[in-house]
Amino acid sequence: MADMTEVFAEIEDIRASLPERQFLRDETELKELSRQLGSSRALRGVPAVEAFLDDLAVFEPGKRLEATKAHINNRRDNVIFSLFDASYFPRLNLDCLTYDTLPTDPYLAERYASNTMPVNITGKTTGFGSRVVVALFPENHLDGIQKPDDLIFYFIDKFLVRHNRITRLLIDEVMEPGSFPLIQGASDRKVEQASSWWVRLHEYHHRHGDMPIPEYLAAKKLKPLAGLEELRVDVSGMLVCLHDTKLPREEARAAYEFILAERLLRYAVEGIPRPNYDAVASQLLFNYLEGNGGIGLVDGRIRLTEKLPDVLRDFLSEIERIESGIHRDPVDVVKQRLLDFTNRYTDYDTESRDYRHIPYFAEVKTRLGV
Predict the structure, then answer these.
(1) What distance in Å separates the CA atoms of residue 331 and residue 237, rounded to the nearest whole number?
(2) Burial label, 3 (beta-carbon count in 10 A; 0-12, 13-18, 19+)
(3) Which residue among 150, 177, 207 closes a domain?
(4) Cβ proximity of 258 and 194 under 8 Å
(5) How many structural domains does the chain have?
(6) Strands (E), 41-183
(7) Span 6-10, mean pLDDT?
(8) Would the pTM of this model clear 0.85, i.e. be above it?
(9) Which domain, by its residues, includes 56?
(10) Cα–Cα distance between 225 and 302 in angstroms, integer?
(11) Tens-digit pLDDT profile for residues 209-238
(12) Residues 144, 278 share a domain
């Protein structure tokens, strides 16, 4: 790939001149953006920029960025360029990145097929440098539209940094020794591989089940239900890693350990003081597993019991049983049952109308400074 230094620098200059987010869709502003991009010597002829310019020429609210999405989905090159607007990625704006794809197990990719792209970022502008931008979804573009064939990108290099910065420390400090033999102290390459397996299984399971995403996205938008959906797909992924014997066993076991460690530990401390939906999910998982004998707290450390795989299976079965009701009951009825199940294993404060974090992890966060 050609050197992108000049391209990135030019995008940064134009990016700095853009209006506030609420004015991004203003027709006059978009025309000015088109003029700046089209007149730039550095950007002229860059296929990703040309595709976006084609879309700007005909853009109106509700219209898909057809050329931009086609450029990305067809993987003409490893460049993503667009104007983004995602409330949970506030630093994404007019941004560009280049990436390298990561290898995967052929059976995994075929049996659990999805539009997932685990990649490492090789070059980027400011927005993609934000720590929270660990993925890119089709609806993050200016059009806000996702179609079934659109690629979903996960930035595995950021997963690696996050794991090494937080999860490794938590494994060392709060888990019973030997709990994660393949992941504790694993090489960067092994963590990359486990992360790639995680996101592939994650997206596959979002699109399967009685209430898949995006079909039932609206029903699962509440924070606790979004967290429950994340748990549904990740526990499904863990069980695949444990029980699908066609997967290479060591890699599958490492992926199982990785998903469990991230879900049980890292999200729990990252969601303090105010739990986000991932932190609510961690609280739910911890309390369910402890209450049903899958884990135990011994002298301040978490012990994984022999029952854990069965308890994970029981947990998933409870969710599947509730969601199967969608074929006979109204969405709101099933939604309330899912909410009741979540609240049974979490600490909801009716006064603040929000969830409290687990005191154990609050103490861990303070003690370790993570």
Answers:
(1) 25
(2) exposed
(3) 150
(4) yes
(5) 2
(6) 79-83, 94-101, 116-124, 135-136, 152-155
(7) 96
(8) yes
(9) 5-150
(10) 26
(11) 999 988 999 999 999 999 999 999 999 999
(12) no
